Amino acid sequence: MKRPRELRRLYVLDTNVLMHDPTAIFRFEEHDIFLPMAALEELDAGKKGLSESARNVRQVSRFLDEMMRNASKSEIDAGLVIPGQHRSLRTAALITGRLFFQTDPLPSLLPDTLPGNKPDNNILGTTLALQQKYPNRRVTLVSKDINLRIKAAVVGIHAEDYFNDRALDDLDLLFTGMDALPKDFWEHHSRNMESWQQEGRTYYRIQGSQVKTWYPNGFLYSEADNFEAMVRSIDARGALLELTRDYRGIRHAVWGIHARNREQNFALNLLLDPEVDFVTLLGAAGTGKTLLALAAGLAQTLEQSRYREIIMTRVTVPLGEDIGFLPGTEEEKMTPWMGALMDNLEVLTQSSGEGGEWGRAATNDLLRTRIKIRSMNFMRGRTFLNRYIIVDEAQNLTPKQIKALITRAGPGTKMICIGNISQIDTPYLTETTSGLTFVVDRFKQWPHSGHITLLRGERSRLADHASAIL
After folding, report:
1. How far apart are CA 98 and CA 78, in angstroms?
2. Which residues partner with 11 through β-bridges?
3. CA gap 13, 159 in Å, rounded
4. Residues in contact with 215: Cβ distance below 8 Å, sequence separation at least 6, in sequence order
């Protein structure tokens, strides 16, 4: 009679999972974890350096050292108890998972087409041996390497991606920052509605069932009524709405730039709001993310003196082949990565510059003194006071990197993260695991943050057509 398969699975971890998330060994609830010797060897080889993966490897080593401290050989063979308790699905009893190491040689069951001298193939061979050793357990290989998962499926191993770092299961569920009101909205919500004006602004207080689906600093619009408002707060009395400012006209331009569509107008409302400390802008190429962020920063730094200077940074992940080490200071080394900044500055100086070439030259000299380019590699330990920080290409950041960056903000600082999650160049990052997706989802409830997904490209008809058909 065949015995029932145990509910507690055995997960074999690939090296890249731990290099991506050093806390992965604590993320499998009551299930057991197995670390092959090949994975430990790769961790040892990757511990040196100042990269994010090297720091993660060293953190994994500290976790393992703490778990193995004072443990005897017999205890290691029996599996180390992983900190944290979880309730069994069948008995509701508190159980803990265990961490196993490859303490004994396992037979090689790999086919001849896969030589065992490669670390990935060694991990495959170990997983096959564990399947034979524990026929009643669900043995699963967890790896962020797509090719390794393909090879695992070929040789009959159940393999999965590491899902715990996903902010969302489906990208379509990502918060867009705005909602269209249904056509019958006012029929159902106008009965207890309050309306008043204060300091030149128009406010509404609305109650109803749909209020629960809104988020602070989210935007609402109705094309039929030409209504656009921002959700200021949500409490027991309902939602407090404020009509948005209209930056579409030339008279209301921001540093010579005016919004060309609804989403850009919403973005400028967030970027110019002193009560919003953190703004995320998503959008395809040509939607105006960098231009809007920079124009709002210049207006608040030079005209309103709200911030002392603008700091712009981005992760240095090349699109093609790297151009090697660059000479000069930190700012000079970052200049080739800041082509988007220079292109947008040229647009802004032309639109606002007066007095011909001399006027533009004077404006450029002024901007260079108030705009600083900084490398993300030297952000640790810093605190930025009263700064306007723009993080470009934020889709290439991991959740840990973007957390380290946001926590640099001091009093009076505003941070803007912009990016296109369909253009991720960092290995092992996807649209659902990007740090930018992570912060959009985690910050949507905070009353001092805002997000907008820009939909329409405004760069040129050529760029719009290329984005649509290529």
Report:
1. 9
2. 33, 140
3. 10
4. 175, 231, 234, 444, 445
Q: To 5 degrees, how large is the angle CA 138–CA 144–CA 150? A: 70
pLDDT in tens, 78-99: 889 888 755 554 555 566 789 9
Q: Tokens 């009524």 correspond to what residue?
A: 225
Q: Which of 428, 438, 440 has the alpha carbon at shortest distance from 19?
A: 428
What is the tens place of the pLDDT at every residue in 343-359? 777 777 775 545 556 55
> What is the DSSP secondary structure assignment for residue 376, as one 8-state letter?
G
229-267 per-residue burial string, b: 16 or more CB within 10 A, e: under 16: bbbbebeeebbbbbebbebbeeeebbbbbbbebbbbbbb
As annotated, the residues of the chain forming the CATH 3.40.50.1010 domain(s) are 10-160
Which tokens hold the place of 416? 């803007």
- For domain 10-160, give the CATH superfamily: 5'-nuclease (3.40.50.1010)
All residues at 6 or more sequence positions from 118 whose CB lies less than 8 Å from its CB, including other chains: none
Q: Domain 260-469 has what CATH class?
A: alpha beta
